[in-house]
Amino acid sequence: MAQLATANEGGAVVKTASSSGRKPFRITTLMSVIGTLPLILTAVGVFVICIIYSFVLSFTNSRIFPAFGPENFVGTDQYSRLWATGRWLVSVNNLWFFGLLSIVANMTAGYLLAVFMDQRIKAEDWFRSIFLYPFAMSLVITGLVWRWILDPNYGIQATVRGLGFTDFTFAPLVNASTAIYGLVVAGIWNGVGVTMAIMLAGLRGVDAEIWKAAKIDGIPTWRTYLFIVLPMMRGAILTAFILQCVGVVRVFDLVVAMTQGGPGIATQMPAVFVIQHITDRSNVGLGMAAATMMLLPVVILLGVQAFAQWRANKAKGY
């Protein structure tokens, strides 16, 4: 492409800009596109197409996955049937209870641990690795470990009784009224580490001048963390909150490993309901309707995050 040129007083020619203003095409750009193409195709094929197909199936009375596309459309009958099913209503109630307790505990404990780590303690890397280790473990392994810990024949109850306290009783997973609390404890143990890491990143991103100004004004450290720094961490808090919510909505491995949804249906969760109806009960239409209802809060949360990011960028003039 032709270049525009100007002459200065000494006669030298200076190149200014290309006539079209476009940057030359680089081979690295092509290689980048080629390198990410498999990921793009996988995301579109596995996620987008499968989500759309599942949504379509929720409007049918399919018992199994149709070989050549869904048949027998029944409109919103499956959704009406879903919300009239007692097992589904119990699942939703359990999810709300489990989610409320685990998210509040994870966010609170995660922030407190982040404040502790922010004190520039010795062996910080070791502590950070210890706190993050549960999150790196499979939820199946986490569930099995906590199932053994809470098992009356092998866990805490058996250990305490072995010390001579023969009347001690602690078996939450075998009681329908307390089994959900065992899931909450395991969920907190698994998720508090990643919340701490996100919160710690938010704390480390606070301008040092804020801390200096607070010290000059004589504000106690705990008030600085609670009333000054915490409101400035909206991005980190929102990210941690959305990750926790998504994890709660799709909780499945933990339930299967610890309780199988029991005793009875005391710890039944929507993800367990979906898998059971697609596989064991051969009711794909109802299972896909339940899966669509599970997807709805995730979409809303992602929309809230996108809107908050757009507002933040607009405030910064981007």
UniProtKB/TrEMBL annotation:
InterPro entries: ABC_transporter_permease, MetI-like, MetI-like_sf. Keywords: Cell membrane, Membrane, Transmembrane, Transmembrane helix, Transport. It comes from Devosia oryziradicis. It is a multi-pass membrane protein. It is found in: Cell membrane. CDD domains: TM_PBP2. Residues 92-305 form the ABC transmembrane type-1 domain. The chain crosses the membrane at residues 30-56, 95-118, 130-149, 179-203, 224-249, 286-308. This is Sugar ABC transporter permease. Belongs to the binding-protein-dependent transport system permease family. Pfam families: BPD_transp_1. SUPFAM superfamilies: MetI-like.
